[in-house]
Amino acid sequence: MKKTINILFIMGLMIASFACVSPEDPETSALISGRWTVNTIIVDREVEGLGGTDVTSLILERDGIFVYRAGGRAWTGEWEASEDTLTLNDVDGETIDFTIVSVNQQRMHLLRVLNSNLLDNVEIRYVFTRADFGGI
Q1: Are 34 and 136 a contacting pair, CB within 8 Å?
Q2: 3-state class of 20 per DSSP?
Q3: What is the pLDDT along the chain (136 residues), one digit of tens a residue?
Q4: Cα separation of 130 and 6, whole Å?
Q5: What are the CA-CA distances from residue 128 to residues 13, 19, 60, 78, 96 (Å)?
Q6: Beta bridge partner(s), residue 88
Q7: Which residues make Cβ contacts (< 8 Å) with residue 90, sequence separation at least 6?
C-alpha cells in the first residue's frame, strides 16, 4: 500500500511539473520563413494604394536565401532575423533593414525608416499576408 501511495505521489509531482511549463514560441526566423505578399503599405501614417501590377512580395527561404520585389525592382541574396530585426543582404552589397513590429502564422508587419539629409526621415510600414501556409 505504501509503495502505491509513493508511486502516485511521484506521478502527481511529475504531472504538476510538466503542467507548469509553457510551450516555447517558435524562433523568429522559423516563423517568418515563407512567401509573403504585401497587403498594405503605410508611408508616414498615410495608407498608400496598391494599384498597378507591381506587387511587393518577399520570399524568405529556410536556407537563408531571399527574393524581394518592390517598386519594379528585385533584390536577391541572404537574409537573417533576430527577435525584432529582419536584414536582407543583397548580392550587390545593398543592405535592407526592417524592424519586425509583429509576426504570426498569417501576417507580418515590418517597419523601414529611410534617412534623408534633405527631407525628414520617411517611415514605411509593410503589412504582409502569408502567400503560403506551410512554409517553403
Answers
A1: yes
A2: coil
A3: 666 665 655 655 556 555 554 444 557 778 899 999 998 888 888 887 665 546 689 999 999 999 999 878 899 999 999 999 999 999 999 999 999 999 998 999 999 998 877 778 889 999 999 987 544 4
A4: 51
A5: 45, 35, 12, 19, 16
A6: 79, 96
A7: 75, 76, 77, 96
Strand partners, 59: 35, 67
**If you search the block for the grid coordinates 539629409, which residue do you land on?**
117
- In CATH terms, the superfamily for domain 26-130 is Domain of unknown function DUF4822 (2.40.128.540)
Question: Would you kindly state where each structural domain of the chain is located, as residue ranges?
Answer: 26-130
CA distance 87 to 99: 9
